[in-house]
Amino acid sequence: MNINLQKLASRICSEVDHLKSVTIKIEEGWKRFEQTSDDFYIDSVALNIHGFYSGLERIFELIASVVDGNKPVSKNWHKELLNLMAREVPTIRPAVISEAVCSSLNDYRGFRHIVRNVYTFKFDPEKIKKLSNEVTGLFSKVSAELLAFADFLDKSALDS
Q: Whole-prediction pTM value?
């Protein structure tokens, strides 16, 4: 039995629960922005979109470290890590996420970079609207894929 794989599976499940809360905050913040046009809600939504992707990236980093044995370290490691999660690593693991989810998450990865490097008054409300409107469906897909991967880890832990 591999306790590290079991711990990782448990951590993935816990992180998915946290991501659900972040997704709800994104939806609520956007609704309040639409009702009030208060830019403070835009800032809140942007920060939570950043948190959504950062939470996923944290999971991906753990998978790369614990399961794959290494994570990308190049200048473009964020993009490489995301793409790595959409690929099977033969004899080690299946793809963690589908190509479709990977493609959708790439927009959130790019937005995470914007939040870290741009003043809030320069946020594009249309981009935030698009990401906010898509986050619930994307969360549904990515959470199902992550939980399926956690099941894979649990079964692998028992087999080892």
A: 0.93
